[in-house]
Amino acid sequence: MGMGQIYAVLGVAFAVIFPGIGSSLGVKSAGEAGAGVVTEDPDKFGQVLILELLPGTQGIYGLLVGFIIMTKINVFGGLDPVTTTEGLLYLAGSLPIAVVGLMSAIAQGKVSTAGVSMIAKRPKEVGKAMILSAMVETYAVLALLASFLVVYFI
Fold first, then answer.
1. CA torsion, points 127, 132, 134, 136, in degrees to nearest 10?
2. CB under 8 Å to 20, separation ≥6 — which residues?
3. 90-142, pLDDT tens digit by residue?
4. Which whole-number Å values give the CA distances from 13 to 64, 67, 100, 120, 153, in the listed order?
5. Residue 74: enclosing H or E segment and its boundaries?
6. What whole-number distance in Å separates Cα of residue 4 and Cα of residue 11?
7. How many angstroms separate the CA atoms of 122 and 92, rounded?
8. In this structure, are residues 64 and 96 in contact, taking their beta carbons and an 8 Å threshold?
9. Count of CB atoms within 10 A of residue 35's CB?
10. How many CA atoms lie within 13 A of 32 on its CB side?
């Protein structure tokens, strides 16, 4: 395996691992708060579940970028030769979703946790809680777009 292939596979790892860590921490945070609310009022489960799921999307975005890189370097068909420059470009292309995915998922988990608290006191405000949490998602989507454009056009 050449250095280009190693860099490209490292890009896959970054794209998948870091947003996955952030998503798991964000979902954990909202889930813990949600468990307390649902214990008091099981009818709020659906509202709480939506807020818990939102921080999980960054992990999906990272996985998508990872799959694109794997497809481009033909991981599933024998691993095509990749120049060092191309490998470094794949690695660099994975960084927006890796870093922003990690940070935004953690931040979105905190906002979702606050939203769960809002639902506990004012269940009719679930839409506002979702919008507040979705605002953080905007930056993960922008990072996904940046990573996708770099990786796709290599």
1. -170
2. 59, 62, 63
3. 999 999 999 999 999 999 999 999 999 999 999 999 999 999 999 999 999 99
4. 12, 10, 15, 38, 19
5. none
6. 11
7. 44
8. no
9. 12
10. 9
Q: Which residue has the tokens 């794949």?
A: 90
Contact criterion met (CB below 8 Å) for 129 and 33: no
Check: CATH 3.10.20.90 for 3-152?
Answer: no
Residue whose pair of structure tokens reads 């608290």 in the numeric block: 117
Distance CA 104, CA 127 (A): 20
pTM > 0.90: yes or no: yes
The residue type of 17 is I
Contact (Cβ atoms closer than 8 angstroms) between residue 125 and residue 42:
no
